C-alpha cells in the first residue's frame, strides 16, 4: 500500500500530490463495487463544471421511498384506519417524544432578546462552537477547542461538508452496508467513488477490519462509521472502535464518525465517541441536536475535527473548510444562540426518560416480531432508533421481495416500513421503533395479520 504524502492531501490542498486524470477517474469508476447505483457525474474544479454527464444521481433515498409508500395507501379503502409510520426516523411524529422545556425556553429567550436576528459567522457563533467543544470534550481524553467545531444545518450538512472536503478525482470512500443512503447520494454528487464494507448481523453488525483493508487503495480517503447505528441499532464496544481506528491508521485514511445518535444507547455497551481514538487516527465527528434533544426540525448540527495531534489545524486545511462554509447557510442565528443553555442545562432525567422509552419500544418490537415466523431479528438493537429485520420469503406466497412486501403492507394495512433495499440490504426491513408504544403495538399487530394472510402455511402463523 502506497502511503499518502500527508494527511493534508485528503483536503485537496497538497499541490504536489498528482491528481488523477479524467481517464484514471473513469477507470476507478468502473472498478467501483456499486457502479450501477453510484453514478459519478463529472468533477467540478475551480467552479467550472467539466462533467460529461449532467444527470441527477439515481440513488434511492429514504424520503423518496417513504413518500412513494405513503402515496400508495388507498385512502378510500383505508378510511377507518390511521396510517402508522415506522419508516421515518423523526421521533417528534409521536407524542411520547418531545423536547425539554429548557430547550424551548432557551430558543424563545434567544429570539425575544432581539440580539440574534442578524447573520452569524459562517462557521457558527463563537459561543455555540465553544459550548459544543465543551459538551463533546466531556467524553474525550483531551479537550476540543472552539476552532475544532463548525456549525452546520443538521448532521446532513455535516455529511456534505465532510464528503465535499475529501472529494477529488479518482478518490474513493468506504461506507458501511447497510448504511444511511445520504452518504451514497452525497458521494455521487461530489464525484467520490463508493466502496462498501458489510456490517455483520451475526457479530452485532460490527465491521470486519480485514474486509475494510481489502477494499482500500491509495485513492481511499476515509471510512465512515455510524455509531450508534442507523439502520442496525448497533452500539460498538470500545475495543471494536479502537480496532477500526487502528485499521484506518494503517491504511492512512481518515475516519468519519457519524454520531447523530450519540448517547442513545440502552444495551450492554455504553456509547463511546470515535474521537476517543483521535490520537490514533484523525477523526471527523458529525452530530446534531436532532435525535438526543428530539428537535430534527431545528437543523442544528456540527462538523468537528477530533484530532489532538492537530493534523487538521494545518492553515490550508482550515482555510479550505472555512471557505466552504462561506457558501453554506447554517442554522438560524437564534437557534445557535440557544445551544449553550441547551447543552448546559438539560436535566439528566430527560435523557434517562428517552432511553427508557427507546428500550421499551425496541423490546416491544423484538417481542412482537418473534410471533411472526417470516420475520426475524438477528441482532436486538442496543441503541439509536432503528432495527433491521430479516424477511423469509420462502414462508410467504405472492410477495416477491422486500419492496413488494412494503408496498403491499402500506396498501393493505396502512403501515409504513422501509424496505431494506433502501439502506443496502435486499429482503430485509428497517423498522423505526421511535414510536408511541400503543401505535407500535397496533402497527405490529397489523404486520402480523398481513403476514398470516400472505403465509404459505396459514395455520402455522
Ligand atoms: C445516520 C444518520 N446520519 C445523519 C442523519 C441526519 O441528521 P440530521 O437530521 O441532524 O440532519 C440521520 C438522520 O436520520 C441519520 O440517521
Automatic annotation (TrEMBL):
One of its GO terms (biological process) is L-tyrosine catabolic process. Residues 1-35 are annotated as: Disordered. It comes from the Eukaryota. SUPFAM superfamilies: PLP-dependent transferases (SSF53383). Residues 16-35 have a biased composition (Basic and acidic residues). One of its GO terms (molecular function) is pyridoxal phosphate binding. The modification N6-(pyridoxal phosphate)lysine is found at residue 291. Residues 82-447 form the Aminotransferase class I/classII large domain. The keyword Transferase applies. This is Aminotransferase class I/classII large domain-containing protein. It comes from Salix brachista. Keywords: Aminotransferase, Pyridoxal phosphate, Transferase. CDD domains: AAT_like.
